[in-house]
């Protein structure tokens, strides 16, 4: 599968499912690196 | 792989029996369920179901006396873990695991802030026990699932096993990491120096995998692993790059960032979702598996960080083996 990011980046994924970044926080954009998760500051 | 050195009466009896010197197998009474002796004895018995040990009769995998002893070791271990985690709703546990807490206090946080190369080598050593058989314990659950949960879990496993390419298997990527880090990539090479808190994390998945009655817990375990790996793998990548670590060491974690972002979604929605649609009565077991994984991971993390804060190795007799 070929993923085209909105910034012009293009990556090829051979996985059975591809997780695509929609929050633009991923360091491996256009793929997801779970950076969208809630961060809770404690202590 | 040779049999490990015993760490007490139980592990001595087990290794002697596997070595062909069968005496009376000792009763399991008043033993620390998280202690070195019980944990190693259980680990060695479980290994008979994976790849076994050099010179050990393969038929002993189904020896009734050894299976009886294994059950007697599992009971206090499982009971202790159950008592410590309590009960909770699956959705609430998953929700909690998805939150990244800062400032973080785990091993990957420590490594990113002030990790030295020997710290990384110790982590690789602890993890070699599991990562050289990565995904194997979870394969046991396949025949116990059906429909959506089964199809999805098999797809994740296929990915873990490199999508049909031996050089991409996650266990191979970890072997490459060990070689690049100047460590041995031989299966179970470090068994003698890895302490109970790390062995227990592997025992937990072996126990869940080998018992059909614990299939819900196995699914919970798999999901917990896939949910929590992403953020910690990101920290590992940044920590390793800071030290200009070998490419193969970084590669293992970059692969896990990308893979586990996918696996997390599939595990949560298809595997847990599919299983609980099929067998809703397993919800408590799934939650237990999720929490038990976190409990033992926290215990390992506390052990490792505790040792490092005291300026000592988190391994047993580290000096002999790590050279």
TrEMBL record, chain A:
Pfam families the record matches: zf-CDGSH
InterPro entries, per the entry: FeS-contain_CDGSH-typ (IPR018967), MitoNEET_CISD (IPR042216)
Keyword set includes Transmembrane helix: no
Keywords: 2Fe-2S, Iron, Iron-sulfur, Metal-binding
Domain Iron-binding zinc finger CDGSH type positions: 3-42
Entry protein name: Iron-binding zinc finger CDGSH type
Species for this entry: Actinokineospora diospyrosa
TrEMBL record, chain B:
Listed InterPro entries: Haem_Oase-like_multi-hlx (IPR016084)
Pfam family, one: Haem_oxygenas_2
Highest taxon of the lineage: Bacteria
Stated name of the protein: Iron-containing redox enzyme
């Amino acid at each position: 599968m070929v993923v085209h990011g909105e910034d012009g980046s293009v990556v090829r994924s051979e996985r059975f499912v591809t997780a695509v970044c929609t929050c633009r926080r991923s360091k491996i954009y256009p793929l997801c690196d779970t950076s969208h998760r809630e961060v809770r500051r404690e202590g | 792989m040779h049999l490990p050195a015993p760490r007490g009466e139980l592990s001595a009896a087990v290794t002697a029996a596997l070595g062909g010197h069968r005496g009376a197998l000792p009763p399991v009474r008043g033993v620390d369920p998280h202690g070195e002796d019980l944990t190693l004895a259980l680990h060695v018995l479980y290994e008979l179901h994976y790849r076994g040990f050099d010179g050990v009769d393969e038929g002993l995998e189904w020896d009734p006396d050894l299976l009886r002893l294994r059950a007697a070791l599992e009971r206090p271990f499982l009971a202790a873990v159950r008592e410590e985690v309590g009960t909770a709703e699956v959705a609430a546990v998953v929700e909690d695991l998805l939150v990244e807490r800062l400032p973080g206090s785990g091993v990957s946080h420590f490594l990113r802030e002030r990790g030295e190369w020997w710290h990384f080598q110790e982590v690789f050593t602890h993890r070699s026990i599991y990562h050289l058989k990565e995904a194997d314990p979870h394969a046991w659950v396949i025949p116990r699932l059906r429909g959506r949960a089964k199809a999805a879990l098999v797809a994740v496993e296929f990915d873990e096993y490199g999508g049909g390419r031996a050089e991409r298997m996650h266990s191979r990527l970890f072997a490459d990491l060990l070689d690049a880090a100047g460590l041995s990539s031989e299966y179970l090479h470090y068994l003698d120096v890895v302490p109970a808190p790390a062995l227990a994390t592997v025992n937990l998945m072996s126990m869940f995998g080998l018992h059909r009655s614990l299939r819900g817990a196995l699914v919970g375990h798999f999901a917990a692993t896939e949910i929590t790996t992403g953020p910690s793998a990101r920290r590992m990548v940044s920590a390793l790059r800071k030290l200009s670590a070998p490419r193969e060491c970084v590669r293992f974690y970059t692969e896990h960032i990308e893979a586990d972002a996918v696996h997390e979604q599939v595990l949560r929605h298809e595997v847990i979702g599919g299983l609980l649609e099929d067998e809703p009565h397993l919800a408590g077991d799934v939650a237990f598996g999720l929490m038990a994984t976190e409990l033992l991971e926290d215990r390992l993390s506390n052990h490792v960080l505790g040792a490092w804060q005291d300026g000592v190795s988190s391994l047993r007799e580290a000096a002999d083996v790590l050279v």
